[in-house]
Amino acid sequence: MESPATGTGYFSAPFERFIRDETGAFTLLDTMETFFDSRLDLLQWQIQKHSDRLKSKAEEALKKCVQSGDLLAENFDYEVKNFKLKLSRSDATRDKVSFFFSVMSLVPALLFGLVPQWIHIAYTVQGLYLLPLHAYHYKKWSWHYFLFDLCYYATILNFIYMWFFPSNTALFM
Fold first, then answer.
1. Rounded (10°) CA dihedral 23, 24, 29, 33
2. Which of 10, 34, 116, 136 has the largest count of CB atoms under 10 Å?
3. Does the pLDDT value for residue 34 go beyond 70?
4. Which residues contact 122 (CB under 8 A, 6 or more apart)?
5. Is 7 exposed, middle or buried (0-12, 13-18, 19+ CB in 10 A)?
6. What sign does the CA torsion over 154, 155, 158, 159 have?
7. Cα dihedral value 90, 93, 97, 103, nearest 10
8. Is 117 helix (H, G, I), strand (E, B) or coil?
9. 112-125 pLDDT, tens per residue?
10. How far apart are CA 141 and CA 91, in angstroms?
């Protein structure tokens, strides 16, 4: 070990490059190192204490879960059964095919190009068929909150504009 006059070996690694003065007195760096070391030790102790508390709470919760494992398994089976029932209610293939044909339908485009004076009637007939059908199915499947979607709102406003207030500029926009 080197002598105190050179100052090496007494400081931690970041302070090793500084040399103590000749008198051997504590410098400002010694004071800062002592202060921060004690703070870091206190912080480390507090973190360890908090970590131990969390571990004990987790162990208690795990014991409770193991004790009520049968109840969790029953709830899981019940939820899986309900999910499968909901999936069987909504046939994904049917939904995809109906969406494809409703979006890719050329009838409205042909009507708009060939006989535009009949568009509002065709739109109304289509809406009078589809809106109640969707309302019935959504209510049956407990999806009735989907009826508050912007599309349904805009469709109803469009009907109001076409049939009751065709000259209203606010509804036209």
1. -160
2. 10
3. yes
4. 107, 108, 111
5. buried
6. negative
7. 60
8. helix
9. 889 888 888 888 98
10. 12
